[in-house]
Amino acid sequence: MSKSIQIYTADDSHSHQAVGISANLTKPFTQGDKTFFEESSLPQSVHADFYNAASETEYEISNNTRRVYRISFSFFEQYCLEHNLQSLPADPRSIISFIGHQKELLQASTGMQLSKQTLTTRIAAIRFYHIQAGFPTPTEHPQVIRVMRGLSRNHHRLVQDYDQQPIMYDEVELLIQAVDQQPHPLLRLRDKAIIQLGLQGGFRRSELANLKVHYLSFMRDKLKVRLPFSKSNQQGLREWKSLPDSEPFAAYHAVKSWLNESQITDGHLFRSISRDGKTLRPYHVNDNSKPKSTFSRNSGFLNGDDIYRIIKQYCLKAGLPAQYYGAHSLRSGCVTQLHENNKDILYIMARTGHTDPRSLRHYLKPKED
């Protein structure tokens, strides 16, 4: 009897189509139009090893990217369903038609058309699901590439023409004043620590949410934070952020005060707090044998979306135009503020974890005299 493996990259209930990598241990192991050498049959003795290694594909992309791709691909599936098209594998002309439909959509919140970045993400999701299912990806068809190249140069589309503004010292002062109006010590200390650590360390919101107590080292005059993984460090290379206590709005004492008040000694650094603001919610981390998608808001720690909402909330209270600010504003504020403080590019890259100096060009505006 043949034994097959199915490695899914989306929830089984996501659609009527099974989206994943399939490999039958007694049939040719193919990928798209490529056929690789295969033994006539693999002995039963290696089957367990094969499945054990194949299970690692769960970690090939981040949970957040997997969630975004799942949502993005669902839009394409729905479009194909409405027009009686096949979504997997898909005809390149179906992709082009989908782009034509999507680029004319208006966002309810802004009245603007979808950005090129949003459309690129949806195309990336289609590519991802095709590769995972073992099909050639129609997104690499020359005509699809030409359409996307033209879209990136189309200056006549009505899209938002601004990025999130940086939160720098002036804005942080206003945010801290808004936080100080919070009557509950737990909320006040947690949210101060989030804002000050986010700014000084140039953290992404997902990085803030994933920080754990044992990643922190309180030195004599600085706070060192270890990042086992980040967007630019997917392979778990050693990465530290060294945050001097001498800088304005340094995170050292803010984080220490939060830990002292909350009595957190291990696990996630930033926790959920009860509605009355007086106690931490019950905390637990799901069993590693369960898919990462089963993590829920009931786990007792904040996720990236929670961080985003907290920043927005205090921007509104501080009188800042909230539509221009978000969790990424802390990261961009870190880059911009260090540049204003006359720090060189290598120093800034060491702080933020950027690996390519070209990524900083967007932030490094000419300084005023």
From TrEMBL:
PROSITE patterns xref list: TYR_RECOMBINASE
Gene3D superfamilies, A to Z: 1.10.150.130, Intergrase catalytic core
Domain Tyr recombinase span(s) in chain numbering: 162-369
Any Pfam family hit: Phage_integrase
Keywords in alphabetical order: DNA integration, DNA recombination, DNA-binding
Keyword Zinc carried by entry: no
Any one GO molecular-function label of the UniProt entry: tyrosine-based site-specific recombinase activity
GO CC, alphabetical: Holliday junction resolvase complex
Domain of life (superkingdom): Bacteria
Gene Ontology BP terms: chromosome segregation; DNA recombination; resolution of DNA recombination intermediates
Name recorded for this polypeptide: Site-specific recombinase phage integrase family
Species of provenance: Shewanella oneidensis (strain ATCC 700550 / JCM 31522 / CIP 106686 / LMG 19005 / NCIMB 14063 / MR-1)
